[in-house]
Amino acid sequence: MVEREMSYTMVTDESDDAMYSSIYNESPSAADNIGSGCTSRGKGSVLKKGPWTSTEDGILIDYVKRHGEGNWNTVQKHTSLARCGKSCRLRWANHLRPNLKKGAFSKEEEQLIVEMHARMGNKWAQMAEHLPGRTDNEIKNYWNTRIKRRQRAGLPLYPPGTHVEDLHWSQEYHPSTSNVTDRRRHQDILQLGNSKANVLFDDLTFANVLFEDLNFATSLLPVASDISDMLGTGASSYMSPILPSHSNIRQAFQSPEHFQNAAPQKNPRSCSISDHPMYGNNHRTDVMIPESHHTFTDGMVPTSKPLFGAVKLELPSFQYSETSGFDQWTTPSTPQSDLLDSVDTYIQSPPPLEIDEPDCFSSCDTGLLDMLLHEAKIKASAKHSFSSTTCITNGTQNVPRGGETHIVTSGAVVKTEEMDEVWEPKRADVIRPDVLLESSWQDQQSRFGIVRDSSSLSDALSLLLGG
DNA sequence: AAGGGGTGCAACCGCTGCGGG
DNA sequence: TCCCGCAGCGGTTGCACCCCT
């Protein structure tokens, strides 16, 4: 112990000796935290690990004032701070840099995090860019805590009615409802065969997966496998972001059969991002995260993979990037607005036919926890009224529907083979992504044109809607 | 009051990408 | 082209605090 502390004092700095002389005496745990994480350089000192002391903070702040950020490995050289560059950078970024916002996340921040996570997955650093004063570490911790909470509560990862601004399906494939030509163009695109689709989507890696080969069953296996993994592990939330929202789906969810015991209220699952103070009104998005489904109750999230629906896309040049998109959200009247608005006209999802009630955010207004509690209540009451029939086979999700098997791949429903099994629409089917997609698309005049068997789709839809 | 479990946060670790030599 | 160092990112861990029994 003493030797270790002595080794610290051997680290000298021509300008900061006086200031630093007390560092290591100040930290009783320092000696216990001498570690191997960062390799020491230069002065033969042993790098310290563990909690930072105020004196160390002062040293680092002073260093940054003098030399600016960056060159973190030189901190150890220019000061007596026995911390590796990594540690310094982290300490500065997470605790010392100016304008850091401390304390609990606000409701707006919470909501934004949810939306962003639905959109981009575990891209904490990117999220942090859109939350001024917040660090990626903070956001990550918050999210992990939230996951645990929701897991315990048996709730899906995303609150009910979360509207995601521009998940790739809505962003890339949803035409503007106000532009029939564009709509048709999207339909044409999605109905295209292999070659044209490749040309049109050649910048979209995910679309490439979808259309690179019309032998979907083969080319989409990895994707489908992911889906089945998600479903198999109950990771419903992973599916959620890919789902185009539609009022019909919402209505189906809220049929008395499903929520007969739920407390009466207006569309309790509708939370629109457009209501978010940080979003512009132009950014109503209609990608709804379906609320909890008991077949996908758990909020388990593979840690290292982004959400399926948040697959990072290589956006075409005419589209704004993720960053710019969020800039747009947070600063709706930026100079880019005009451009972005015009882009929106092309890429934004159609506005909901059923407008969210003004108080749709009411449940959100009380914070996420309240939302979760509310959702748990509803879920508890509705849980017994439906059953699961999800069929997962060999890495692909084969959805028996009207005697056909459809491989569901993030929105593309591909008929592959005949099946004898008769599909009965149960609740679990209703909330299945494929069904949701189909119902949504069909209702919107097949504008997306992916589903190829419209007759069976109609049947399913009519059953779905109780027809 | 004590202890055991849960929770949240800070920090570390390992990997990856990038740029310079 | 390869290697090396650096910065950054995301996942994981450790620990202090809190709450409940």
From TrEMBL:
Task: Spell out the SUPFAM superfamilies in the cross-references.
Answer: Homeodomain-like (SSF46689)
**Compartment list:** Nucleus
Keyword Nucleus assigned? yes
Residue runs in coiled coils: none
- In this chain the Myb-like domain maps to 44-96, 97-147
> Which key words are in the record?
Activator, DNA-binding, Nucleus, Repeat, Transcription, Transcription regulation
Q: Which Gene3D superfamilies match?
A: Homeodomain-like
**Chief location bin:** nucleus
Please provide, in alphabetical order, the Gene Ontology terms of the cellular component aspect for this entry.
Answer: nucleus
Task: Quote the InterPro entries the UniProt record gives.
Answer: Homeodomain-like_sf, Myb_dom, SANT/Myb
- Recorded GO terms, molecular function? DNA binding
Enumerate the spans annotated as HTH myb-type domain. 44-96, 97-151
Could you name the domain of life of the organism this protein comes from?
Eukaryota
Question: What's the protein name?
Answer: Transcription factor
Which lineage do the record's taxonomy fields give for this organism?
Answer: Eukaryota, Viridiplantae, Streptophyta, Embryophyta, Tracheophyta
